[in-house]
Amino acid sequence: MSENRIAKPLVLYVDDERNNLMSFKASFRLDFEVLLANSPDEAFEILKKHKPQVIISDYRMPFMTGVEMFEKIRLNYPEPFRVLLTAYGDVEALTDAINKGQIFRYIKKPWIEDEIRSVVKDATEYYHTKWLLEEKNRELTEAYKELDRFVYSVSHDLRSPLMGILAIAGFLQKANSMEEVHEFGDMITSNVTRLDEFIANLLEYYKVKRGELTISSVRFEKLLDEIKGIYAIEMLDKKISCEIKVTQNEEFRSDKLVLLIVIQNLLSNAIKYQKLDNPDKQIELSAHVSKGEAIITVKDNGIGIGKEFQPRIFEMFFRASSQAMGSGIGLYNAKMALNKLGAEIKIDSDAGQGTAFVIRIPSK
Ligand code: ADP
Q1: What is the per-residue burial (b if ≥16 Cβ within 10 Å, else e) of 98-130?
Q2: Most informative mutation of 319, 322, 357 for ligand 1 (most atoms within 8 A of CB)
Q3: Residue in 205, 235, 273, 276 to alter for ligand 1 test, most ligand atoms within 8 A of Cβ
Q4: Which of 100, 101, 124, 303 sits in a 20 to 30 Å window from 153, CA-based?
Q5: Ligand 1 pocket residues where CB is under 6 Å
């Protein structure tokens, strides 16, 4: 968007007279990026490959008038602003076209250079404003959808552990033995852990969504060690072995917090979704940096993800398994964070076969 603003406007000029095309190009080549078409057919071909902000066309052309051509163009390419060049006597014929919204402006022939410049300037400004408005509208629609999902999730994921704790508190008051007290205590701990994880995920969501990127040099050996350290005790407790493999012979620049959030989410899933009865639980964390990009893999030999669930795995609040009481936000956050870094994430998994998440990130 900002590039478009700085760049010269892209203008398509359509006229059946070659001399006019040549003189248009000669007059405006320094002001606009000029595309020329000698006929409506040529214009249609050009529009398949280019996206001009403005189309200027002669009204009188053989086989099709400029207005008829605009009518056709508008069906498939509604975005460019359409400007018509007309001889004095044709003005009457334009009323209909103007009223139907086929054209943005008309300019009388012979054209005056400054008038063309001013019309193109206005049209380009409208074009950008419209584009910005559409973009904001898209963001707003998406934000509304997220809000709906939030309300649903908050009512479910925050209320149900709270209701659980309330019920347990009632049982606790009537506990008959220390054994029962311990049992109820464990249940409260598990509910509070669920709540805490949910809130931590929501905080991550806001950090990633609203935060600016902070780019610095990343040493993967250190970063992966740090992340492994966060889960070391849990992995020891669950008898999971975790191997780190790194090859990095060049500088890699990225946002450390974003990388941390993403890899931490993937590692936490690799731990959560192990096969509980597997005596040989394994996780591999690897990073390979070369030619300005990093490939990061988080691989486990856990329960895997069925192919039917994989297309939805990055949706907000989507869960494919009830093995762990997750919030369904982790992978959504990870994907959103990776989008910010211009990175892509792929999944290689099958039910019962373990899972590998592979991320490809360009250095900034
Ligand atoms: P959650 O908090 O539920 O783990 P995520 O967004 O992190 O939310 O993951 C979404 C779902 O994807 C999980 O509920 C789980 O079903 C599945 N999933 C994610 N990672 C793995 C994995 N490594 N192995 C198996 N299933 C996974």
Answers
A1: eeeebbbbbbeeebeeeebeebbeebbeebbee
A2: 319
A3: 273
A4: 303
A5: 265, 269-270, 272-273, 300, 302-305, 313, 318-321, 326-332, 355
On whether the CB atoms of residues 121 and 53 are closer than 8 A, the answer is no
Buried b / exposed e over 291-305, threshold 16 CB at 10 Å, is: eeebebbbbbbbbbb
Print pLDDT tens along the chain (364 aa). Answer: 444 445 799 999 999 999 999 999 999 999 999 999 999 999 999 999 999 999 999 999 998 999 999 999 999 999 999 999 988 777 776 777 777 767 899 898 889 999 999 999 999 999 999 889 999 999 899 888 877 777 777 777 778 788 889 999 999 999 999 999 999 999 999 889 888 887 887 787 777 777 778 899 999 999 999 999 988 988 999 999 999 999 999 999 999 888 988 999 999 999 999 999 999 999 999 999 999 999 999 999 999 999 999 999 998 888 888 776 677 888 998 998 899 899 999 999 999 999 999 999 999 9
- Looking from the CA of residue 265, the nearest atom of ligand 1 is 7
Picking from 355, 360, 323, the residue whose alpha carbon sits closest to that of residue 344 is 360
Question: 183 C-alpha to center of ligand 1: Å?
Answer: 28
* Ligand 1 centroid from CA 330, angstroms: 8
Structural domains for the chain: 10-111 (3.40.50.2300), 217-364 (3.30.565.10)
What's the pTM value of the predicted model, to 2 decimals? Answer: 0.61
